[in-house]
Amino acid sequence: MNPAHHFRLQAIFREIFDQPALALTPELSPATLPEWDSVAMVQLVLATEQAFGVRFTMDEVAGLKSAGDFLTLLAAKAP
Amino acid sequence: MNAALLQALDDRALAGVIAHLPAAVLDDVLAPVVAQRTSLDLAVVGALLARLPELTKRETWLAANSPWRGSLPGRWLLAQAWSGDRSRWPEALELWAELIEQSGRYAADALYERARVRRETGDLAGSVSDLISCAQRWPDYALLSKTARLLDRLVAKSAAVPGRKVRIGIVSSSTTELMPPLLRLLAARDGLVAEVYAAPFSMYRQELMDPASGLHQFKPDFIVVALHWRDAGLEPLGNAPDAADRVFGELEQLWAAAQRTSPCTILQHAFDFPAHDSAGLLSAREAGGRAQVLAEVNRRLFQARTPGVVIVDCPRLATQAGAEAWSDEALWHVAKQHPAAPSLPLLLDRYVRLIAARVGLAKKVLVLDLDNTLWSGVVGEDGPHGIKVGPPTAIGEAHAALQRYALELKNRGVLLAVCSKNNDADAREPFRSTLGMVLKEDDFALFVANWEEKPANLREIARRLNLGIDSLVFVDDNPLERAKVRRELPEVAVVELPADPAGYIGAIDRGGYFEALALSAEDLARNSAYQANASRDALKAEAGDVQGFLRRLDMRMHHGPFNDAVQDRVVQLLNKTNQFNVTTRRHGAAEVSALRADPAAWTQYFRLVDCFGDNGLIGLLIARPAETADSWEIDTLLMSCRVLGRQAEEFMIATLLAAAQERGIARVRGRYLPTAKNGMVADLFPRLGFVEESRTADGAATFVWDVRARVFPPVAFVRSAGA
Question: Total structural domains in chain A?
Answer without folding.
Answer: 1
